[in-house]
């Protein structure tokens, strides 16, 4: 790693989402979202909802980690670590309980006022994702969610309320979390049900188009309300390698990456590329695209690119290849050069440097690493601090390669936020045992526990990383004890 430093204004911090942390699912006038009826993430979402009543099934996000009531304690812990920024999201149904109302819910707006004020009290910049894996259930039931063009207006109305209300409190925004996941898991990403669809891809890519138009209109509106806003897109970055040096494997790998660049190309460049148009033709997908849509896409390009990066995969053109691994909504061939997490996610710190170079070479826009972290089973003993050296090892290697991308390769990286800076409900599995946090939350998969917060070993490590602006990546020298 280079001995050069990151810029002094580098945004160090952590990231969570509203639906995985807040709880209080039916408080403060909040309506029901798709996340409120999820019991097990992508591994078999169970929808038990009849006549407006949620049945007696455990829904992990109903209380989650109770961030809604405990945020002052949590923000104080983030400040103790030295956070420069904190990424969270807005629960759409806290602001518009059904999603299509004309007037917002003041109680929901006031909650986020309090949250952002608490951040700013410590000098922590809020980084806000407007839509993060939750859609008002009413809009799903009445309109079919993002398969309906009306969703654009509903979303832009939400954005206008947020931009005007928090124009002096929030500078950094992202329009949709991991927008490319709409084609990988449309239920979690956008509340789209494709089970009975004759042409599922038609539904997914039409919904994606409406989301991208909504994003572009939001960007234009945000710039009118406050020209100092920085509004970005956000994608799951799907780094993959060709299994061999055969041209066939490399062509297949290019095609796999193109499925994701499809989204960033449109949001950064403002139009569908010739390759994207040919892709849609091959898949017999005919999109509803108006002249106004095209104008909006071109005028509403983003200011920066947010990415989640956890792992890499391997691609082969040979359909007989059977060595498969899954992770982060993706699956591919196992890489014999990499270790895996307990959930089969292949650990590839150097891949983050490669990913950052690929993106910056393609777009020359600032990149914000807004999700990176290790899901693991943390062993908690009474009276002792969690010794999560495995998480420190994972994060330190990724941060080191990110710094190399900046100081050796010239990539413009504006910030880094550890995913799940505090333990929360896993989006992909609905579990608490899959922990990412630097702060331990006493909660299990059955919803039992005190919800008490305790610092892990990684808490003290990350505090030194931030204080040194990335220069100190070794583990803390002094031995820490439990709370």
From TrEMBL:
GO biological processes: carbohydrate catabolic process
Active site, renumbered: 371
Domain of life: Bacteria
Keywords: Glycosidase, Hydrolase
Entry GO MF terms: beta-glucosidase activity
Keyword Kinase attributed: no
Signal peptide positions on this chain: none
Gene Ontology cellular component terms for the protein in this record: cytosol
Protein family: Belongs to the glycosyl hydrolase 1 family.
Protein name: Amygdalase
Organism, as annotated: Paenibacillus apis
Taxonomic classification: Bacteria, Bacillati, Bacillota, Bacilli, Bacillales
């Amino acid at each position: 790693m280079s001995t050069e430093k990151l810029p002094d204004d580098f945004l160090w911090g952590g990231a969570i989402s509203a639906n995985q942390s807040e709880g209080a699912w039916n408080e403060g006038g909040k309506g029901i979202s798709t996340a409120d009826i999820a019991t097990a993430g992508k591994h078999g979402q169970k929808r038990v909802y009849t006549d407006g009543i949620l049945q007696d099934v455990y829904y992990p996000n109903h209380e989650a980690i109770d961030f809604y009531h405990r945020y002052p304690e949590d923000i104080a812990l983030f400040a103790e670590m030295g956070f420069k920024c904190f990424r969270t999201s807005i629960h759409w149904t806290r602001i518009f309980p059904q999603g299509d109302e004309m007037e917002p819910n003041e109680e929901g707006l006031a909650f986020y006022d309090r949250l952002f004020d608490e951040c700013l009290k410590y000098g922590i910049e809020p980084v806000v994702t407007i839509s993060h894996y939750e859609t008002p259930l009413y809009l799903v039931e009445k309109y079919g969610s993002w398969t309906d063009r009306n969703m654009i207006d509903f979303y832009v109305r939400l954005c206008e309320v947020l931009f005007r209300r928090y124009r002096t409190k929030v500078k950094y925004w992202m329009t949709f979390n991991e927008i490319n996941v709409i084609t990988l898991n449309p239920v979690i990403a956008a509340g789209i049900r494709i089970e009975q669809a004759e042409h599922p891809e038609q539904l997914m890519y039409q919904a994606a188009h409406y989301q991208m138009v909504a994003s572009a209109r939001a960007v234009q509106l945000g710039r009118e309300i406050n020209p100092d806003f920085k509004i970005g897109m956000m994608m799951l970055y799907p780094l993959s390698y060709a299994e061999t040096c055969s041209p066939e494997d490399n062509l297949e790998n290019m095609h796999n990456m193109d499925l994701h660049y499809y989204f960033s190309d449109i949001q950064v460049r403002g139009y569908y590329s010739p390759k994207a148009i040919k892709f849609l033709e091959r898949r017999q997908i005919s999109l509803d695209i108006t002249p106004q849509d095209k104008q909006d896409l071109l005028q509403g390009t983003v200011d920066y690119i947010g990415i989640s990066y956890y792992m890499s995969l391997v691609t082969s053109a040979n359909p007989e290849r059977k060595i498969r691994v899954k992770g982060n909504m993706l699956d591919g061939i196992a890489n014999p050069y990499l270790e895996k997490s307990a959930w089969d996610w292949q650990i590839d710190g150097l891949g983050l440097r490669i990913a950052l170079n690929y993106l910056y070479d393609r777009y020359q826009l600032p990149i914000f690493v807004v999700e990176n972290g290790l899901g693991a089973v943390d062993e908690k003993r009474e009276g002792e601090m969690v010794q999560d050296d495995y998480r420190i090892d994972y994060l330190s290697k990724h941060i080191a390669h990110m710094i190399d991308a900046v100081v050796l390769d010239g990539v413009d990286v504006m910030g880094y936020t550890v995913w799940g800076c505090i333990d929360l409900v896993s989006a992909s599995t609905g579990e608490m045992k899959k922990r990412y946090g630097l702060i331990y939350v006493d909660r299990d998969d059955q919803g039992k526990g005190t919800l008490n917060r305790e610092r892990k070993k990684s808490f003290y490590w990350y505090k030194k990383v931030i204080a040194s602006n990335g220069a100190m990546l070794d583990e803390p020298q002094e031995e820490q004890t439990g709370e």
